[in-house]
Structure formats: C-alpha cells, structure tokens
Design brief:
Keywords: Ammonia transport, Membrane, Transmembrane, Transmembrane helix, Transport. Pfam families: Ammonium_transp. Belongs to the ammonia transporter channel (TC 1.A.11.2) family. This is Ammonium transporter. The protein is mainly α. The protein has one domain: Ammonium transporter AmtB like domains (Ammonium transporter fold, Orthogonal Bundle). 67% of the residues lie in helices and 3% in strands. It contains 17 helices and 2 strands. A two-stranded antiparallel sheet has the order 1-2. A hairpin with a 2-residue loop joins strand 1 and strand 2. Helix 5 packs antiparallel against helix 7. The longest helix is centred in the last third of the chain and has 32 residues. 51% of the residues are buried.
C-alpha cells in the first residue's frame, strides 16, 4: 500500500516534483519501521497509562518500556491483544498502519517541504499523535474503545482522521505554493497506485479480523464493493456537474470508497457498504471544491479525501455498525453521542498536536524550501535526481 500511495501521489504532482513526492511516502517505510520497533509499538500496545474511571483504568498511552526493541514480542499469541496469531506478527501488521498514516499526510504539503524536516516530522508524529490514538482506540483497555465504546475496525479514526487533520495543519502552517497550477506528471502512475492501494486494502481491512474467518470475508466484500460504488458515484457526479469523466477522478473516487469503509468493514452488510461508498464519494467530491480548503492549498486534497472520508465513515459506522449496543441502530442515541464526542476530540487532538509539531520543529529545522528551490523543483533541489 505504501509504494502504491507513492505512485498515486507521485503521478498527481508536477514533473519536477515526482521523485521527491514518491520518496516522501516510501521513506516512511524506513523511518516509522525503526520508530515502531524501538518505542512505537510499546506506546501503542504496552500496559495502559491513563485515568481511572469507576475503578477501571483506561489508557491514554502505553508503557514505553514494556516492548521496547520488540522485547517480549515473540511467536506466541498474546492472550488479550492478539490471541489468534503470533504476537510478533500482530506487531508487524500494526506497524504497516503506522507506516502509511504519515505517508498519507505528505500529499497536503507536496512540492514545497524540505525533505529533512519531513523526516523529523513523521518520527515525532508517530510518537505524539499516532501511538496515543492507536492505544486509546485499539488497546483492550484504551479510553476511546473500552470506555466510550467507539468502533474502528481497521483505522478510520486512527489512520484517516488523524492523517486528514494533520494534513490540514500542515497545509495551513507551511503555506501556499508559488505556483498552484500544473498538469499531473503521470496519469498511469495514478492508476497503477490506485490498483496497488485497492489490492493492499484487502489486507488492511480484511486482515484486521486477525483470522481467516467469516468476518474477514465480509470485510473483504464490503471493502471492494464500497470502493467500486464510490468510484462510479464520483465519475457520474462529476458528469452531472458538467465536468468530464477522468481517469484521475475515477481513481480518487475509488480511494475515497476505501477510506470511508475502513472503520466499519467488518461490522456492516454489503448493501450498507454500497451506501457508505455512495455517501462518501458525494461528500468528499463536494469538499474538494470547498472555497475554504482551496485557500489552504492542500496540494493533493488529502483532507477532502482522507479527513472528510474518515469523518463520514466514522459517522456512518456510529449509525449502522451491527455489534450489540455499538451504534445508533443497535444501541440508541447514547452510543451515537459517544462517537460524536470522540470524533470532535480526535479531530481537535490530531490538528492541534500536529500543528504544534510543525511549529516547534520549524524553530530547529526550516520546513519550507527556499523560493528558488521550489521554482527549480524538489527533485533537483532536494535530491539531485530527475524523473
């Protein structure tokens, strides 16, 4: 999925920024893998450190020393966290979620960010934003999952909302490009990247059942059907708005369908997944042309696709998810209200902490390239390479 995202983003930017944009996604495999091994997994799935409510401890973050350097992470299952697969397999599977989240953010400030500043950012983001959210949502005693009862099957909240709001913070802090108008460098890269993402998402969503079972099969089905529905909705909605049907539009629609289904993939039916894809495509398509977002210069519309898509997915999950007592239709307004409170809280947390990281980091490592470097392109100015 991460190389797929690299191609997807790389094809969208101008030719003089193709390599730099692709590398920003690809390098996340290196940076986050190291951070996750040393301390990230421990922060996400270590014993909870948090607050006590009614005699129960609910985690805000994990013990940073418990699984440092994958200590005690071995081939045996973990009785409460990963009882169906080897614990080390679970740790590596979760690592891939951590890898792709900051890679998603890169699209918001593409074509104008210094590479070294970005590398520092993703390491810090993994520790201060991703790991706490991962712990609160997916640890058995996490505050969001265990206390508020919020469902996130495969990362709608943990991955897409956090990345979407961080993207908005990045676009706002780093500022607009000198030249916002360019032709995509390679439409075939976009289509190839979309295919890799779509295929990889089966592992992302179906794999989150941690078993080859009925839940995995349902997640597999809802994932591809939501994506297909969103793709077709996107292209026909474009046509209804007087725009041509484009390959890039079809690809963006497909990815939005994948985003919106992610939090609910194993909790809903196939007809409901079609509704998810339809609504997600319409809302994200409208967000794409919102005047507020255009003023921010979110280069590849990451917030409109991943942020808005993740938010829509979380809201629909709060309405339709089928486990007993877990959604509006299966538990009433109280659980729906809990989801909405968490939605606001996670959005504010992701945006504020990410903006603070950009602000503080910029004091030590200038994040934006010089005007002349932006003009010549980041491929040459940052890496001395050309596509």
């Amino acid at each position: 999925m991460t190389p797929g995202l690299s191609l997807f983003y790389g094809g969208m930017v101008g030719k003089k920024n193709l390599i730099s944009t692709m590398l920003q996604s690809f390098i996340s495999l290196g940076v986050v893998t190291m951070v996750w091994t040393v301390v990230g997994f421990s922060l996400a799935f270590g014993d909870p450190i948090g607050i006590e409510i009614d005699g129960e401890l609910y985690g805000l973050i994990g013990n940073p020393f418990q699984y440092m350097f994958f200590d005690q992470v071995n081939k045996l299952p973990h009785i409460s966290i990963a009882s169906s697969i080897p614990f080390i397999l679970f740790a590596l599977f979760q690592m891939k979620f951590a890898v792709i989240t900051p890679a998603i953010i890169t699209g918001s400030f593409a074509e104008r960010v210094r590479f070294i500043g970005y590398v520092f950012f993703i390491g810090i983001f993994c520790v201060l934003v991703y790991a706490p959210l991962c712990h609160m949502v997916w640890h058995p005693n996490g505050l969001i999952g265990a206390y508020f009862g919020v469902l996130d099957f495969a990362g709608g909240t943990v991955v897409h909302i956090s990345a979407g709001l961080a993207s908005l913070a990045g676009a706002m802090f780093i500022g607009k490009r000198r030249n916002q108008h360019h032709a995509p460098s390679n439409i075939t890269y976009i289509m190839l990247g979309t295919g890799m993402l779509w295929f990889g998402w089966f592992g992302f969503n179906a794999g989150s059942s941690l078993a080859a079972n009925g839940t995995a099969a349902v997640a597999f089905a809802t994932t591809t059907i939501s994506s297909a529905t969103a793709m077709m909705t996107w292209v026909f909605f474009d046509r209804m708005q007087g725009r041509k049907i484009t390959a890039m539009g079809a690809c963006i629609g497909a990815v939005v369908g994948l985003v919106v289904i992610t939090p609910a993939a194993g909790f809903i039916t196939v007809p409901q997944s079609m509704f998810f894809g339809f609504i997600g495509a319409i809302v994200s398509n409208l967000a794409l042309s919102a005047k507020f977002l255009k003023q921010m210069d979110d280069t590849l519309d990451v917030f409109a696709c991943h942020g808005v898509g993740g938010i829509v997915g979380m809201i629909l999950t709060a309405i339709f998810a089928s486990p007993e007592g877990s959604s509006l239709l299966h538990g009433g307004w109280a659980i729906f209200g809990s989801h909405m409170v968490v939605l606001v809280g996670v959005s504010v947390f992701s945006f504020v902490v990410s903006y603070a990281i950009f602000f503080v980091l910029n004091k030590f490592v200038t994040l934006r390239v010089r005007d002349e470097y932006e003009e010549v392109g980041l491929d040459i100015s940052q890496h001395g390479e050309s596509a």
